[in-house]
């Protein structure tokens, strides 16, 4: 005690002194006569740990689903698309050559895009027709990886072959080698009036992207066949698709490309073309994170009740320290150390548990499925059989810092109350 008294007489401390740290950590365990405070401390610790584990895991799974959807969409769509304000784009070779000079552009490919309808077995379905050059399209899209039957090279100019999605093939009962009719909305004038243009195509391939919009509503034909069907000049296309070395550079590339192109064009990127879809996913992630963050908030503010009871239990000890010369600020620091220790320990355990679960959530879910003989993600419905996960250090750091700040804020009132304990009143009946 004498050593403590010497240290206390120095007055206010700019930082936590060894004796304040020692007593604060010692107070995390209550006296033998009052185990209830220790129990409440344990509940607060477990609440922070479980809340952080759940929040990190959910955010990682949401990131995984977002990455999975983005990969599938951008495997078919383009990172950057160059079009024209006047409709068709001319001199696409020149545009492709100039665009690929940008260091972030990996490849370029022309395309013809138009609306159409396909008919087979008295089933008619509206589709998006995309005319491509197979050798160049393979550099900007992942169709080769998604082909269930056939290959892109089976699209030969003049043979009028067509590649359709798996869902469209199921709806129409179509297989490779069968004939289907592609109907163009651009009509031709006849004595009987304006009639739609019809052309019979042979199914040469079927792809399955895993995204219903494309698997049921997109068909691929050779670009030269598309130009004939839609009466376009040989040098006319709907636009040029670009693949970037990093898809997240798309907005920057869109700003820099106009200065590199000698032709007036309209340029857009995937962040604008699919903005609503990815914004919806982001909003869902934020709302789930906010809801789960309330668990951490409740657990953190359980520290308030823990410290209030600890202050009541330790009033005589506080009074003795005050009579030995401890300042009110020193008393505050002792209880701040006690509450912060609970918060920091819960944060460390929560981050550890969250990262372990986030990186192994697929195996955990698979074990639960085999144990209960159920299936959470049916491949026929979701096109995936394993829960995707993508833990990001930015999210984990944000959760950890938030938890620590909440824990620190929860210690302010009880610590202030402890500093206001009157030594005479506390020792009156001791």
Describe this entry's structure for a reader.
- The protein is an alpha+beta fold.
- The chain folds into 2 domains: 8-69 and 278-426, no CATH class; 79-270, no CATH class.
- Helices cover 54% and strands 20% of the residues.
- It has 19 helices and 12 strands.
- The chain has helices spanning 2-8, 18-26, 36-74, 92-99, 134-140, 143-146, 166-172, 212-217, 223-229, 250-256, 270-273, 275-313, 315-323, 328-359, 361-372, 379-382, 393-410, 412-419, 423-426; strands at 80-83, 89-90, 105-120, 123-132, 147-149, 161-165, 179-190, 193-207, 218-222, 236-237, 239-244, 266-269.
- The strands form 2 sheets. Strands 3-4-9-6-8-7 form a 6-stranded mixed barrel, surrounded by 4 helices.
- A hairpin with a 2-residue loop joins strand 7 (179-190) and strand 8.
- The longest helix has 39 residues, at 36-74.
- The protein is elongated, with a radius of gyration of 33 Å.
- The chain starts with a helix and ends with a helix.
